[in-house]
Specification:
The structure is a single chain. The protein contains no helices and 15 strands. The two termini are 16 Å apart. The chain is mostly beta strands.
């Protein structure tokens, strides 16, 4: 039996300081609380973890099947019913922008709200989406997350997915 405990850290901490009348005035933006997901299925829980560094050559794309093709660290093919978190990182050394979403068919809408919506992740950028409820994955009709590479050169991007099997 396996169990999964997940902590998602998605916050911005900043300190804005200005010297006024001989003293420092400081405005702090505090960290947001971590988002914790327990082991299992249902609200606030997950039981699937997938991570990989994947390579796309210039001007190519791939369709990541969230319900029946990706293999986790234990050699098990994942079958997500709800995606709880997605992190995609385009390394600083990359020469191309990645476009995520908007698969031609069987699109996983996830946080994009529509099958035609996508997000661009430029070199050195990272996108993180998290939902305690999760985004529905429908096998064979709504389970494809498309990742497309621009024309600048090959990209070794990082992807992490936390999901629930029910």
């Amino acid at each position: 039996m396996t169990s999964l405990t997940t902590i998602v850290r998605a916050s911005i901490a900043a300190v804005n300081k200005r010297t006024l009348d001989g003293r420092d005035v400081v405005d702090r933006m505090p960290d947001a609380a971590d988002i914790q997901l327990g082991s299992g299925t249902g609200y606030g829980k997950a039981d699937i973890a997938f991570m990989d560094t994947r390579t796309l050559t210039a001007s190519t794309s791939e369709n990541l099947d969230l319900a029946g093709a990706l293999v986790d660290a234990f050699g098990t093919t994942i079958a997500a019913a709800k995606v709880k978190a997605i992190m995609i990182e385009n390394p600083e050394a990359s020469l191309s922008t990645l476009t995520v979403g908007a698969a031609a068919s069987n699109t996983f809408n996830g946080p994009f709200s529509s099958a035609t919506h996508s997000i661009d992740i430029k070199p050195g950028d990272r996108a993180l989406f998290v939902s305690r409820t999760g985004w529905t994955v429908t096998a064979a009709t709504g389970d494809i997350l498309k990742v497309a590479n621009g024309a600048g050169g090959s990209v070794n991007y990082n992807i992490e997915i936390i999901a629930a099997s029910a």
